[in-house]
Specification:
heterodimer, A: mainly alpha, two-stranded antiparallel sheet, 2% strand, globular, B: five-stranded antiparallel sheet, three-stranded antiparallel sheet, 16 helices, 8 strands, flat
């Protein structure tokens, strides 16, 4: 047993700073000093602004502060108060039903019936509330907001799953006995490293309808000039376009994202596949080799190894990438801003690339509606938080943390 | 016995063939992926070497990447040009002194220019007209700008403007901005007689678009701004990050959990919420500094607003804290016996062994700072402190049809980061990987 000698307290340190208690106080003071610069900046530019943003959102605020209008900005975005109550209440009930459903344990069979009944009731009421409230909300709220949320949803669904699948594939291949691993890694990672504005500019020129690389290639494959896709200039939905191509009328609800948004999606996938691959490689490196050995001795095939060892063991990475990917699409700004510059208006063409973050920027910067933009930012945050919550609930029990 | 051996042999051969096919397939997928990852860079470099005409005529391989423009070039020669007063050219720049013009005979052009002039119906030899302008309003005639045209007084066609001492030439083909020469450089601009050096500037011929983009979009200033902004941000993040994470990892004080939760919370707050109040805070600070210290643009349009709000970030604190917490306690106890305080322990022992995580922090924050667009877009209305991303984004609008210049600008913008990446790619990828390992 080694006893640590107390340092000799200098004679000058007496009173409050003397002895063991004095050392603790001194350490605390020093710690606060260490934390001062970072915390001060954090307070001024990150934490207090949240409260300030809420204050702004309660006002009519166009560059200068105007009248206090309470929650009017939120209602302008979401519709009548009752609609909001219906929808939020309905969603709450559905979430509650989910929570009760999961709290039912086999042992509590006595109360089981009651609980099941409660779940059913909550589902029915919640569902009804949504059915009643949601169309009204759509009708009375800000159409642009709901459109932008739908566009952001398309954007998420278009990018995240494909990104994850492709990078999982590449990472698994790179994890094999492959020559020149570093070289492959450098190449795949290049898109992520490149300055976003620059690479978005390059892709804008690649998608250029008359002289861009993609349409040059399509023309070489024999597509006639009038049939060449207009990419970033095309506001028609991809579903409608496919319908036209196959020669039938697509119903309007199946129109899907505009071709311009598809171009942005392609760019996004290009940027993030390499990044996801690197993270998957790190995740694969953490899987214990013995598990593979053991499974192989038990006669598992390549496919079974993948299905029952690799996929469950890298599920934390998958979950992380899913989360970051979805939140990333909600935050995306730089590349959408640059790629839609071809039209000189935000959300070009016809607002079909107006994701939520671009919509907020438009209200803030182009229309100088600070109050309304802040309210939209909070609504978007609410959507992001609930999406994260849903994702974490889905992941629960499916993600295996070793 | 023999038959089983034969079977085993056959099987192993079969196995080798099969694993060969699998291997081949894997390499095929990897190559395909690499091609997709790389081709935009190839397109960027290729387009950045093209002329406007080549890009719009969909010519795949630019003449600038062949030998044609660069062979058989005669040495430069100095020519005296008699200048005489002229009436105003159509569309020329406003000038304070009377305009003077002169003629330089051109007898020899490169093969590429000869082909292009032939298409335009201009025979060799031809004359290059020089229009000298005085753009300074000081009452003295000192010519500093020149408009060069081929056999034409129409300023819109075949025109390039150059400054005193700068290489350039008239446009021999559309909007190539005098790239393929012969080039002219006004060595001495006395009012009556110019001394013009006529020759070939191979540098200009090869990097023509880069030079034009660099000049037109003021990339020199933007690069400087971005470099300063990035370095300052990194310095701030590293200092605040090291101090805060050390306090969280190795010191005891009341309210530690609360403060740490506050740091965690900022990680969750989306930027869109904070952006508007931050803008108003900057405006308020600007007003305050103006009224108290009489300072104009202390925050707005200045490096302060571009760097100070980003001089702390929660991610850096988490990353470093995790590393600092792993340092064995015995090390600190030993240092304590030697009479070390926390600050000495931090600078003498902790930092030297934390080179790897610090490198990660520096690289990641460097990229983020260099990449930022939205905030500088809001906070800079003049070019004084505009970073390169905003510069390029504005240049995209300005040069809209001239894709080759936009591509050259993109190369200029991205090269510093790519150089950094190639030199530090190992730490780089490892750093990125650790960001995803929190599980």
């Amino acid at each position: 047993m080694i006893t640590v000698e107390q340092p000799v307290t200098p004679a000058s340190r007496r009173g409050l700073f003397a002895g063991r208690r004095g050392r603790r106080i001194r350490e605390a003071l020093q710690a606060y000093l260490f934390l001062l610069p970072g915390t001060l900046l954090l307070l001024v530019f990150n934490l207090l602004p949240v409260g300030y943003a809420f204050y702004i959102s309660m006002h009519k605020w166009r560059i200068q502060r105007g009248d206090f209008i309470g929650l009017e900005n939120y209602l302008k975005a979401l519709g009548e108060p009752m609609d909001v109550v219906w929808v939020v209440g309905g969603l709450g009930l559905l979430a509650g039903a989910w929570a009760v459903w999961h709290s039912i344990k086999p042992e509590t069979s006595g109360k089981g019936f009651l609980l099941h009944a409660a779940v059913a009731l909550m589902l029915i009421i919640g569902g009804l509330a949504l059915v009643l409230g949601f169309p009204d909300m759509l009708a009375n709220g800000d159409e642009d907001l709901f459109k932008s949320l739908l566009i952001t949803l398309y954007y998420s669904i278009g990018t995240v799953p494909l990104q994850i699948i492709l990078s999982f594939l590449l990472a698994n291949i790179l994890f094999q006995d492959i020559r020149g691993k570093t070289a492959w890694r450098i190449m795949y990672f290049l898109p992520y490293v490149t300055v976003t504005v620059a690479s978005a500019a390059v892709w804008t020129s690649i998608f250029e309808p008359r002289r861009g690389l993609i349409n040059l290639a399509l023309a070489m494959l024999g597509v006639t000039e009038e049939n060449l896709p207009q990419w970033l200039f095309e506001a028609t939905g991809i579903g409608t376009l496919i319908g036209q191509w196959l020669g039938f009328e697509m119903p309007s609800w199946a129109a899907g994202p505009s071709l311009a948004l598809v171009a942005v999606i392609i760019y996004n996938i290009w940027v993030f596949v390499g990044y996801n691959t690197i993270i998957y490689l790190a995740g694969l490196g953490n899987v214990p080799r013995e598990l593979y050995e053991a499974a192989r001795i038990d006669g598992a095939s390549r496919w079974e190894l993948l299905r029952h060892v690799t996929i469950p063991l890298v599920s934390p990475t998958t979950y992380f990438l899913l989360m970051m990917g979805v939140l990333g699409t909600f935050r995306a700004f730089n590349h959408i801003y640059v790629m839609t510059k071809v039209g000189r208006t935000l959300g070009f063409p016809q607002g079909t690339t107006m994701t939520s973050s671009i919509l907020i920027f438009k209200h803030f910067w182009e229309r100088n509606r600070f109050g309304y933009a802040s309210a939209l930012a909070f609504i978007l945050t609410g959507v992001m938080l609930s999406l994260s919550w849903i994702q974490s609930r889905i992941a629960e029990g499916r993600v295996f943390y070793g | 016995m023999a038959s089983t051996m034969v079977a085993a042999k056959r099987e192993s051969r079969e196995y080798r063939v099969r694993s060969g096919i699998v291997q081949g397939f894997l390499y095929l997928v990897l190559t395909l992926g690499a091609v997709v990852a790389i081709f935009p860079f190839a397109w960027m470099l290729l387009t950045a070497s093209k002329t406007y005409g080549e890009h719009s005529q969909k010519i795949f391989w630019p003449a600038g990447l062949t030998a044609r423009p660069y062979t058989d070039l005669s040495p430069a020669q100095e020519i005296m040009v008699d200048m005489h007063p002229t009436d105003v050219w159509h569309g020329s720049i406003a000038s304070f002194s009377p305009l003077v013009e002169g003629v330089v005979p051109v007898n020899e052009v490169s093969r590429l220019v000869a082909e292009n002039l032939e298409k335009k119906g201009i025979a060799i030899p031809f004359n290059v007209l020089i229009l000298a302008l005085d753009t300074t309003d000081d009452g003295i005639r000192n010519y500093d700008r020149f408009v060069l045209t081929v056999d034409s007084r129409l300023a819109e066609q075949f025109t390039t403007r150059i400054k005193l001492g700068q290489w350039g030439g008239p446009d021999y083909e559309g909007a190539a901005r005098g790239r393929w020469g012969p080039h002219f450089n006004v060595v001495d601009a006395s009012p009556d007689q110019l001394v013009v050096k006529q020759g070939w500037n191979v540098w200009h011929m090869f990097f023509g678009n880069y030079i034009t983009a660099w000049r037109e979009a003021n990339f020199a200033l933007y690069t400087r701004n971005s470099a300063i902004i990035t370095l300052l941000t990194i310095a701030g993040v590293v200092v605040t990050g090291i101090l805060a994470s050390y306090a969280f990892a190795r010191m005891e004080f009341p309210g530690k959990n609360l403060l740490f939760t506050a740091y965690l919370a900022t990680y969750m707050i989306p930027w869109t919420v904070v952006m508007i109040p931050d803008y108003l805070i900057i405006v308020a600070l600007e007003d305050f500094f103006k009224q108290t210290f009489g300072m104009e643009n202390a925050w707005y349009n200045n490096w302060t607003a571009l760097t100070i709000p980003f001089m702390v970030n929660a991610f850096t604190v988490f990353l470093l804290r995790q590393f600092f917490a792993q340092i064995p306690n015995e090390l600190f106890d030993a240092a304590l016996i030697d009479g070390c305080g926390h600050l000495r322990f931090l600078t003498r022992i902790v930092l030297p062994i934390s080179k790897a995580p610090l490198m990660t922090v520096i690289i990641l924050n460097g990229i983020w700072a260099w990449n930022s667009l939205q905030w500088p877009l809001i906070i800079t209305t003049t070019s004084d402190w505009r970073p390169i991303t905003v510069g390029l984004s504005g240049f995209i609008t300005e040069a809209s049809a001239e894709t080759q210049l936009i591509m050259a600008g993109s190369v200029i913008t991205t090269i510093p980061i790519l150089v950094l990446y190639f030199f530090t790619q190992k730490q780089f990828t490892e750093g990125i990987a650790t960001t995803g390992l929190k599980g």
